[in-house]
Amino acid sequence: MFTNPVAMPGVYHRPPKKTRQKVRQTASNVQGGFTGEGNINTNPLFVDAANDNLRLLPGSPCIDAADNGAPGVGAIATDVDSHARFADDPATVDTENTPKAIVPIIDMGPYEYIAGDGDRDGDTDLFDYELFAGCATGPGGGVPAGCIFLDMDADGDVDLIDFAVFQIAFTGSP
Ligand SMILES: [Ca+2]
Ligand SMILES: [Ca+2]
Ligand SMILES: [Ca+2]
Ligand SMILES: [Ca+2]
Predict the structure, then answer these.
(1) What is this structure's pTM?
(2) Which numbered ligand comes closest to the C-alpha of 106?
């Protein structure tokens, strides 16, 4: 599985074959690895890759890891879900994969991850807070069904650390 960086949302390419290695390939997540600045080779943590749902789960290495400076990226305003691009995930340290980036940093792949967006409608607002309240389990308490997006630090619970992230991510309704 390989996701193109963000220049062409929704378009996927296979890793280039030897005969096609002139293809520019940086700041991408390439299964099997591929040499290039900013590339990573770890489980991208898609929501459901088997069913082509390539939205990102909390903790995905694709979050805040693409290159804002890549050609064409600056002109992208929304992702494939028509949600805002260039959303920062407070739980994800902006990495060295994005040497040319200006925060907030765009995610790898066609979908931007929005921290605290429990109902997946593209914002982090009071509706999401209601979900959070119903999902909160406390440290080590597990993640109830339907609450995966509210375990924002991806450590297997919905606790006050997640709430801290939620507060920073809170945007209100558009
Ligand atoms: Ca981002
Ligand atoms: Ca971040
Ligand atoms: Ca929401
Ligand atoms: Ca957590």
Answers:
(1) 0.78
(2) 1
